[in-house]
Amino acid sequence: MSEVQIPSAYVAPKGRSLFEPHRIFLMLVFAGLIFCVAWFMRWDWLPRYQDRLIYGIGQTLLMLFSTAIVGFLLAVPLGLVQVTGPKPLALLARGFCTLIRGTPLLLQLWLLYYGVGSLFAQFPEIRSSFLWPYLRQAWPYGFTALMISFAAYEGEVMRGAFAGVPRGELEAARAFGMGRFTLFRRIWLPRAIHRALPTLTGETVLQLKSTPLVATVTVVDVYAIISRVRQETYLTYEPLLLLALIYLCLTGILVYAFRLLENRIPTKGV
Amino acid sequence: MDATLHLLSLTSPGWGGVLLGGLVASLQVAFGGYLLGLLIGTGGAAGKLWGGPILRDLLEVYTTVVRGVPELVLILILYYAGTDAVNQLMALAGLPSVDISGLAAGIFVIGVVQGAYSTEVLRGAILSIPPGQIEAARAYGMSPLLALRRVTLPAMLPFALPGLSNLWLIATKDTALLAVVGFAELTLVTRQAAGTTKAYMTFFLAAGVLYLGITLVSNLVIRAIEKRALRGMTRPGGAA
Amino acid sequence: AAQELKVGVAAEPYPPFSSPDASGKWVGWEVDFMNAVCAEAKVKCVLTPVAWDGIIPALTSKKIDAIMGSMSITPERSKTIAFSDKYYNTPTAVIGPKGVKFDATPEGLKGKVLGVQVSTIHADYAKKYFGPVVSEIKEYQTQDEANQDLASGRLDAVQADLITLQAFLDSDQGKACCEVKGNVKDDPEILGAGVGIGLRKEDTALKDKFNAAIKAIRTNGTYDKISKSYFTFDIYGK
Amino acid sequence: MAETAQAIEVRDLYKRFGPLEVLKGVSLTAKQGDVIALIGGSGSGKSTFLRCINMLELPTAGQVTIHGESIEMKSDGHGGLMPSNRKQIQRIRTKLGMVFQSFNLWQHMTVLQNVIEVPVHVLGQPRDKAIEVAEALLRRVGLYEKRDAYPSFLSGGQQQRAAIARALAIQPLVMLFDEPTSALDPELVGEVLSVIGDLAREKRTMILVTHEMKFARQVASHVVYLHGGVIEEQGPPEAIFENPQSERLKKFISSIH
Amino acid sequence: MAETAQAIEVRDLYKRFGPLEVLKGVSLTAKQGDVIALIGGSGSGKSTFLRCINMLELPTAGQVTIHGESIEMKSDGHGGLMPSNRKQIQRIRTKLGMVFQSFNLWQHMTVLQNVIEVPVHVLGQPRDKAIEVAEALLRRVGLYEKRDAYPSFLSGGQQQRAAIARALAIQPLVMLFDEPTSALDPELVGEVLSVIGDLAREKRTMILVTHEMKFARQVASHVVYLHGGVIEEQGPPEAIFENPQSERLKKFISSIH
Ligand SMILES: Nc1ncnc2c1ncn2[C@@H]1O[C@H](COP(=O)(O)OP(=O)(O)OP(=O)(O)O)[C@@H](O)[C@H]1O
Ligand SMILES: Nc1ncnc2c1ncn2[C@@H]1O[C@H](COP(=O)(O)OP(=O)(O)OP(=O)(O)O)[C@@H](O)[C@H]1O
Ligand SMILES: [Mg+2]
Ligand SMILES: [Mg+2]
């Protein structure tokens, strides 16, 4: 272990390129590894499942974006009332966030689907209502659980973001005659979102990583498709490795997309 | 639901004892996995900061993969591949295959996942130490190891504590995912109890209360630890 | 020293064959059967609950050494693992809610939502015979959850092994809601030749030992004695 | 509204924070074109007075009239006042251009967006007209090149000039400055003072809290010395600075030089 | 080690950062009891020189000798030097008491713990003896009452005095000060300077980088003016300050006054 390097003004022109000798060596090792995986493992099932896999990826992304967007819309009031809301409402929101963040998502999902879902069925009014065709399916429960979870985690982030907007900027808006709603719409909210943006990337990746849980309540996403492959082919590793690769790619794309978005809005000093 | 409350009693035919057993199993895995993760994280952070280029790149791959793949998938892969690999190694060494208990496998799996996150938390914390603190240690003739032990590690603590507390809470909840590999932790025994008795709501709510209890108690303990560890180190509300 | 064998069962309740009781102990016909067979074969068996959808990988990756989890012997599975001789065989049935009339044929299930347990012979069968006509086949991690969704009305029908369905229909919940709609047409290619002990292909000695033990408890009356306390009829089948 | 109305008329303003009485009856009148410099020691209540004018701080008692229109207040039941007409206050505020000590530019908008924000979204002006006006203003404060930069990329002096442009964009009847240069490095103070000096020469009505005595003397038409929550002395700058009457003002002025 | 050995002898020190040559052959000798003040413009290499003495910065070329013991260096293969004996450097560092501009007290230890840290954990002194010495030192710098406080609760001046006590606790042969007062508010500078002044009167060997010319003149036995990486002029304080020879030093001194 060498001594801790003191960060200094002068940084030697250190190649961060992909093509340093040791990187080339590592890449060769990885290429070899991938070749072994491709060559010695069984991949003949891939063409048969190709269409379903693409469908599954689509479902996963649909689940991700729908829950993230709706969850975020919910997170805004959750964060806001904790900062300015009347005391009872603030406590309620705080309790909600603690409750959701304090219990595993898997348990919440099962509670919703097997617990609450089966309660619905006991009421003939619900069974005969127009809602029933939806309530008897699995995705509304998966959607709700994921959405609530995102709302709770992001609500906490938004709370910090709302509270962190400098008071002076709000005061300036007031001094120029903005009404409460205009102030919220034009200054407070956009400024808070601006502050929350960097954490949003991380939260969205976490959300992506939570989506496979819905497969445990019969929602068909890419994880469910891979489970089916595992059960039908009795292969242990190949489908799981492919699945890991798929999620890794999705994460990479997400992070990249968010970075593009962030670069469009300078966040220096925010 | 009131009618099913007796199902929670601690002795048979109540399932309370089984739930508590699951809770203990969950806590064991969470604790073991967390400690293992800290161990990996300490090594990982040291490697990322002071290691050679190859080690650094490999650690980067490790943390990127673990943080980009759902825990559920990692758990499945590690659960099968991890024990498989151990047994293959044992076979290579000419030893009989060992019996890897669900507990050990669970700790291993959670530990590997936690390790990646700990690596980042600890690395970030070490980088947050004002460089002058470490420079002063060098200026007074401390050897690198002594400086690490006496200055770097303790000075890092205030920066690492929030992240490490968070990781502990994540560890307790990630144990629920071991249900998918049939490890009898709290979530799985809850499902078994619910399935057998059909009292789904009762058991899921009971498990929820137990998990929430863990979180709330943990929060209290964390706050106490933070208060002790940071005692005096920062001026209340002021700059450190 | 007696060799210790880890015997996998599904980690979910599958009454009356295997399910945990309130003290966390596993009970049921198959647990008793396991004890009898292992005693006969003079091996020490440890019951090990495993997630059902990973039970074959668990066997091949040596997490467990045998499966006694009501696993049917099918040609498809036989490609990956070996089976002992069958130790029981029961018909496959479809159940549904009481008020609605239909039978266990493609015509009867037309447009219905059918539930099966994932990676079972029933799932394969349903996909082949009913897949084209039903509105959806939902696959559940455990049989119990499928039953639950039938009771709550989210499913129109459930296909599974008759005995385990019967156990559900005998429960309060099952009595209130559902009834047997009939047995499905047999297809040995999919539904297999009964339930056997799943083993790794290379463990042929173990397989011979179990085959002999099954034969022995069939002839010495142990098998019938165990069955009598659970069933009123012979579950060994033809 | 009579032609001869005062730009600002404040009568008997009181303000207390809990037990602390900060303003103890302050009255002040500014005619159109007046440049009033408010001076006084730290904690004497200068900022509070300025903030009471546009009701960022609600006075405990007193009356504020802007161009002949009195702000309607009613008792809040705890011995203080509260606005009885929120819309009126919002409207009146759009006639008062406030420039803060710490700029308070909106960090998520570019300089140009900051300047057109209120004209477009509060006053409802058409966007392209607002941009036209804003660009002219930015040119005037020497920030035209920086119009698409975000505030955090500007120096303090540039930020304060942008804040002045933002205040001017609403074509205010009165500009209110609260120590507009005290958050700046000495080298940046000059550029901001020169912009304010220009405004003063144009006879724009201004109330200016400042610690820059030399500057106050140059630009102010009237200087008000606040002490302990009351106006201790006021008058034309020459009188105040050359010939202070009260002991306290004498001490204050000598401590500054 | 001869009796007459110099406390510090630096010969022909060179230091480059990448393309930038900061020190271009600096030599300096300090006898025991000397107080050397290092002055010079910003960026002239004063800090770098001081940091090279205890090898916090590795010189590109040159030789450093502390009390007759030369620091062993070897080529690092990239045109620079590296220590060939890490243990030796660690030992020599314990003879040099460094006081940093930004104090660099260890924030996780109380003042007393900071002072006894090196004696106990590096020099291996018994803990109670170290505490005894430390308390005497803290009393001397006027911090005895604060010995159990954490650094973040102290004022800058108090922190710097604690840092001086920490440096004194190792009974250094030479004290190195790098602008010990420039991170302090003007009102706190005095208390630190008075402690350093006391040390100077005790004839403790010191090398002192400072911008406080008046102070340098009072306490230094020798003043060194660094410019552009070389010693432009040196001599007794009277000569340097009253009668500078080089144009640059003349300008530097006049710019200071
Ligand atoms: N929101 C508030 N709550 C309580 N006290 C306040 C508040 N705002 C100001 N004060 C107090 O009112 C007094 C006058 O404050 P004010 O800011 O008006 O002084 P000032 O003349 O602007 O001084 P400075 O030159 O330091 O800005 C001070 O004692 C201050 O502490
Ligand atoms: N680690 C480093 N990497 C690159 N350049 C450096 C480093 N340290 C110092 N320098 C450069 O070396 C030059 C001399 O720096 P040094 O800190 O020694 O000056 P100084 O005389 O102490 O100035 P000041 O009075 O401002 O402290 C400067 O130009 C500085 O930018
Ligand atoms: Mg003020
Ligand atoms: Mg310096």
From TrEMBL, chain A:
All copies of domain ABC transmembrane type-1, residue ranges: 57-258
BP-aspect Gene Ontology terms: amino acid transport; transmembrane transport
Cellular component terms (Gene Ontology): plasma membrane
* Compartment list: Cell membrane
Q: Which residues cross the membrane?
A: 24-41, 53-79, 91-114, 240-258
Q: Which Pfam family is one of this chain's hits? A: BPD_transp_1
For membrane topology, the record states:
Multi-pass membrane protein
- UniProt cross-references to Gene3D superfamilies, sorted A to Z: MetI-like
Q: Does the keyword Nucleotide-binding apply?
A: no
Q: Which domain of life is it from?
A: Bacteria
| Keywords assigned | Cell inner membrane, Cell membrane, Membrane, Transmembrane, Transmembrane helix, Transport
Q: Which family does it belong to?
A: Belongs to the binding-protein-dependent transport system permease family.
PANTHER family documented for this protein: ARGININE ABC TRANSPORTER PERMEASE PROTEIN ARTM, MEMBRANE COMPONENT OF AMINO ACID ABC TRANSPORTER
- Under which name does UniProt file this protein? ABC transporter permease subunit
Q: What is the source species?
A: Rhizobium straminoryzae
Automatic annotation (TrEMBL), chain B:
Q: Return one GO MF term.
A: transmembrane transporter activity
What coarse category fits the chief subcellular location reported for this protein? Answer: membrane
**Membrane keyword on record:** yes
So where does this one cross the membrane?
Answer: 15-40, 61-80, 100-117, 151-171, 199-222
Record's bilayer topology term? Multi-pass membrane protein
Tell me which family the UniProt entry assigns to this protein.
Belongs to the binding-protein-dependent transport system permease family. HisMQ subfamily.
By what name is this protein known? ABC transporter permease subunit
Instruction: Give the organism, scientific name.
Output: Rhizobium straminoryzae
Automatic annotation (TrEMBL), chains D, E:
Q: Name one GO molecular function term.
A: ATP hydrolysis activity
* UniProt keyword ATP-binding present: yes
Protein location: Cell membrane
Superkingdom? Bacteria
Question: Do you know which Pfam families this protein is assigned to?
Answer: ABC_tran
Query: Which residues are in the ABC transporter domain?
Result: 8-253
The entry's cellular-component GO terms read: plasma membrane
Keywords for this entry?
Answer: ATP-binding, Cell membrane, Membrane, Nucleotide-binding, Transport
Which family does the record assign? Answer: Belongs to the ABC transporter superfamily.
Name the UniProt record assigns to this protein? ATP-binding cassette domain-containing protein
Q: Which organism is it from?
A: Rhizobium straminoryzae
